[in-house]
Predict the structure.
Amino acid sequence: MASARLLFLILMLSSVTFKTSAQRLLELECQPAAGFAGKETKISCSFKTVIGDKDITISGLVITKNGQKDVFFSWLDNVNKGDPRVKLSSRTDPSLLFTNTTVSDEGEYEYKIMTNRGMIKDGRFSLRVTARYSDPVTSWSDGIKEGGSAELYCRASGGYPEGAIHWFDTTGTNWTKNAKLDITETSDKLLTMSSTLTFTSIDLSWATFRCVVLNGKFVKEGEQTFKPIAKDAPADAVSGDKKNLTNTQIIAPVVVIGSLIVGLLFTLIIFRRRRSNQARRVSTLPILNYPGNGTENHYTEVEQGHTANPTQNGEVIKIKP
Ligand SMILES: *[C@@H]1O[C@H](CO)[C@@H](O)[C@H](O)[C@H]1NC(C)=O
């Protein structure tokens, strides 16, 4: 009887020691996971064991997210509870699948797992999520004119985590220091980055401007080039800003004034030709008719005609005294 009791005790103790050592010797190792918003993310996990017996079968698991009271996901007695997007890879693979990953899934998790070889209470994994920013949308303040103040805007939304927006002009000058970046959170922790680049005196020869969107790893994710054009250029021209005159506004008066000058020149030329023709007709006729002194006679006639006026004036003067 005593030997049987001893044997039972030994068996009990050995089973206990076997169980505790199995618990220590069985570990869960998970790789840090990186997922994309809206996509499926795999959390790669595996058992580490020195038992030798690799035939491990999972019978249950409980996942809790750090900072949350409620269980994030559990699978016990073949019943799923918690987030329906989570799935165990297989009964022999502790890896997990997150379908439709969201930015709010990012964080640290505790992963308790029950197997036929014992229970792992200290499993954990981390998940980082990134979301791609939309292509940047650009705009600019009203009434931009050469030498005036101007604000240029560049906005990219739906991304995560926080990145940056950098500014360059056509010469490659980096204007980022003159810009202010605002970051706002929209639904589901997604971010909108809005950058405002302010000029107190803009040189429009610097256009085209380029805004570059960088993601959380400061890698270029998108860019947009644009020329800020004064939307109210004709109104400015009316107010007398000559620098803002458009080509057509300059050409139109040039054409009008030019045609006036050309017209004037033509009338002048025609008038002169008529006069010289008249003079020639008068002067040539005598040459043809009276070869010799005919021209001299004509000029004396003209001179006489001209001197006629002073004599008239002279008569008026004579009346006065
Ligand atoms: C542009 O300027 C910003 C802010 O000063 C800086 O962080 C960035 O590295 C610069 N980019 C280039 C391409 O020089």
